[in-house]
Specification:
Shape: elongated
Number of strands: 0
Strand content: under 5%
Radius of gyration: 18 Å
Helix content: over 70%
Number of helices: 4
Structural class: mainly alpha
Length: about 120
Amino acid sequence: MTTPFKSRLASLGTLRLGLIAIAMVNMLLPVIDSILRRLTASDMSDSIWYIFPTLIAPAMAPLLLVVMFFDYVMSRIQAADAQGEVRDHFIAVSRIELMIMAIMILFWLPFFILLFK
């Protein structure tokens, strides 16, 4: 038996779910790093883990936003061409992607403001 949430997730498609998952992991890496630093009370700047939340995640954030924006635009184009249930599906997809993009922007904005200050 599938729940409405599972069917909604399945209707997004594998590539879209992968993109959303990568975006979520991108936002979780700095949080996990911060928690680990507080729990261990040590400087982990000499470990390989340090590269992921401090270098790779901030560099990937704008790239992921651009890819998600392109997918958002394509969802809106598909919604404009479709009718009925298909149109509703693409509108829902575009709203989900817009929400994820807004969360990513709000999450990374303080970092980039401090970076360019």
